[in-house]
Amino acid sequence: MTAPDVRGIGVDAATRCAHYASALDVVAIKMSCCATYFACKDCHDALADHSVRPWPREQRSERAVLCGTCRSELTIAQYLASSERCPACGAAFNPGCRAHHHDYFSDD
């Protein structure tokens, strides 16, 4: 199975982009609004012709998070439950990403 493409500005093989490029920035999110993976919301804002729409709470079983290290597609629930490490490969994720969860995943 082929891993999905990730859009963004200056995206590398591990899904890092021009906005977030630390060793821990290896998560891409499939946007609810367009069902397309982007490296980050800033890349989406720069390249898409519409606004980001967070995933509704009732869709937490959707595979919408891509680990840039092992290319596993995680459900939103899996990612939120273990957002500091990939449950598939153990790669560390940026703990600072929690500050942006509301941009991607609705609490309602």
How would you describe what is shown here?
This protein is of the alpha+beta class and 108 residues long. The chain contains three helices and four strands. Strands 2-1-3-4 form a four-stranded antiparallel beta sheet. A hairpin with a 6-residue loop joins strand 1 and strand 2 (37-38). The N and C termini lie far apart (33 Å).
Please give a handful of descriptors for the protein shown:
about 110 residues, alpha+beta, four-stranded antiparallel β-sheet, about 15% strand
Quick structural overview:
The protein is an alpha+beta fold and 108 residues long. Helices cover 16% and strands 13% of the residues.
Topology (SSEs and partners):
Layout: E1 27-30, E2 37-38, H1 41-47, E3 63-67, E4 73-75, H2 76-81, H3 101-104
Antiparallel strand pairs: 1-2, 1-3, 3-4
- Structural class by sheet pairing and helices: alpha+beta
- Approximate shape: globular
Strand neighbour order, sheet with most strands: 2-1-3-4
Low-pLDDT regions:
none
Task: Tell me the domain tally.
Answer: 1
